[in-house]
Amino acid sequence: MRPPREPFRIKMVEPVRPTTRAERERALEEAGSNLFQLSARDVELDLLTDSGTGAMSQEQWAALLRGDESYAGSRSFARFREAVNEVLGFPLVVPAHQGRGAESIFFGAVIDPGEIVPSNAHFDTTRAHIELRQGVALDLPVPESLDPEGEEPFKGNMDTEGLAELLDGPDAERVSIVMLTITNNAGGGQPVSLANIHEVARLAHEHGKKFVLDIARFAENAWFVQAREPGYSETPIQQIVREMMGEADAVLMSAKKDALTNIGGFVAISEDEEFFHRLQARGIVFEGFPTYGGLAGRDLEAIAVGLREVLEESYLRYRIEQVAYLGSVLEENGASVLHPFGGHAIYLNAAAMLPHIPAEHFPAQALACALYLAGGVRGVEIGSVMAGRDPISGENRRPPLELVRLAVPRRVYTARQLDQAGDATAAVLEKAEDVRGLELISEAPVLRHFTARFRTLS
Ligand code: F0G
Questions:
Q1: Whole-angstrom Cα distance, residue 34 to residue 451?
Q2: Are 88 and 311 in contact (CB under 8 A)?
Q3: Which residue is catalytic, options 97, 257, 339, 361?
Q4: Cα 122 to Cα 93: distance, rounded to the nearest angstrom
Q5: How far apart are CA 416 and CA 214, in angstroms?
Q6: Is the CB of residue 103 less than 8 Å from the CB of residue 146?
Q7: Where are the alpha helices (DSSP H) in 250-338?
Q8: How many whole angstroms from 51 Cα to the centroid of ligand 1?
């Protein structure tokens, strides 16, 4: 596959420092085999996340200068609110410093202890916010999402039969909101179809529950709907976005993804002034006055521009095709990769690539470390380490798949740089049996993957 042609040229550059294998070995040792603990200067190709790592456009940088830094009533907030309403259709918005700030505002206002929150699959911070309030974050992915090779177009969908069973069953009283994450990050960056969104919303509303979308990657999801869902190939992206949003009572956004900024987030709702004031009140305590919410006025300006820019067809085509290019390069080099390719990342199936390492020795963490040692490439484990422990039993959770995610920052790397991930994969697979499993030597009680330390087994 040829890489897509970039719909931009480069106006500012950031040097990348070459590293040697010996330097990387030392760095990884000091980091306790946890790639989150590396210094970024020791990384050559940083595919840790697509969150807040993108390059802003000249229009976004220009908008920064218009930032109105007034504490109250900032004009930047008015422009931000207008963009949220125009693009997404929600007039009532509470800004936050990032997605998890929005989660904290929202879940603090809606979750009672014991409450069950069903979703296609919760992202780790979403799960943490629900569990911090003694809620139960319940994943109901479609069964086909667990088959790493199937080519079903919408593996991010929720299992609506499972949802109906829950909402008709004895635990229905414990549910007040039903969620979908678009695209489904924890489930391989896979999209959710509009048919599934409509059906989940219908079930939620029929049972008197609120329907909430995590829209961190809404534009990428809309692209897949246009490309794959029957009946939408001629529908403009903007219209697909509005159809997705039209079902939701509330949306949670991390602007660090599909608002093309380095920081920011928000909760938005369509009506219910009373609930809005409750959200605002929580926002004031945790994030800041409702017209800045933990952000500078200039950040709000960049989000307003990014929300419109992300819908441009030339951008979205390049974005999705660049990620697919990475997927094809990895496969050419022997990697076992989740199919279809995700919207923001490629997910390596570590259990298949390192079959000699059992789940209790963290094969995906071992693979992520090996790729770093081989080529200075940083990915992230999405397997037994990230899954953490069950908050009640304290047992290690066992996720269905052991994955390494290689997420592509938006508008940052060239195709030649992405090729380095292919070279590193080939080098690791050539001596796959030399890669050793890991043992945890320290971990935090919540979101342990950020700070855990490991020892390599001999
Ligand atoms: N929801 C989804 C679907 C996410 O992917 C993320 C973050 C969040 C919420 C939280 O947003 O980081 O702004 O607080 N995902 C990043 C990632 C960290 O690497 O996938 P945040």
A1: 7
A2: no
A3: 257
A4: 22
A5: 33
A6: no
A7: 273-286, 297-309, 313-332
A8: 7
CA distance 448 to 385: 7
Residue 224 known to be catalytic: no
Is 126's C-beta closer than 6 angstroms to any atom of ligand 1? Answer: yes
Burial of 433 (0-12, 13-18, 19+ CB in 10 A): exposed
Closest residue by Cα to residue 50 from 223, 219, 293: 219
What residues of the chain score a pLDDT lower than 50? none
d(CA 41, CA 109): 40
pLDDT of residue 391: 81
- Catalytic-labelled residue, pool 137, 366, 449, 454: 449
209 is catalytic: no
Residue 152, pLDDT score: 96
Residue 181 pLDDT:
98
Strand partners, 407: 345
pLDDT at 83: 98
User: 222: helix, coil or strand?
Assistant: helix
* Residue 221 near ligand 1, beta carbon < 6 Å: no
Put simply, whether the predicted model's pTM sits higher than 0.85 gets the answer: yes
Residue-level pLDDT at 392: 87
Cα of 96 vs centre of ligand 1, distance in Å, is 13
Given this model, what pLDDT does residue 303 score? 98
Distance 22 CA to ligand 1 centre (A): 33
Cβ pair 77, 292 in contact under 8 A: yes
Question: Residue 223: what pLDDT?
Answer: 98
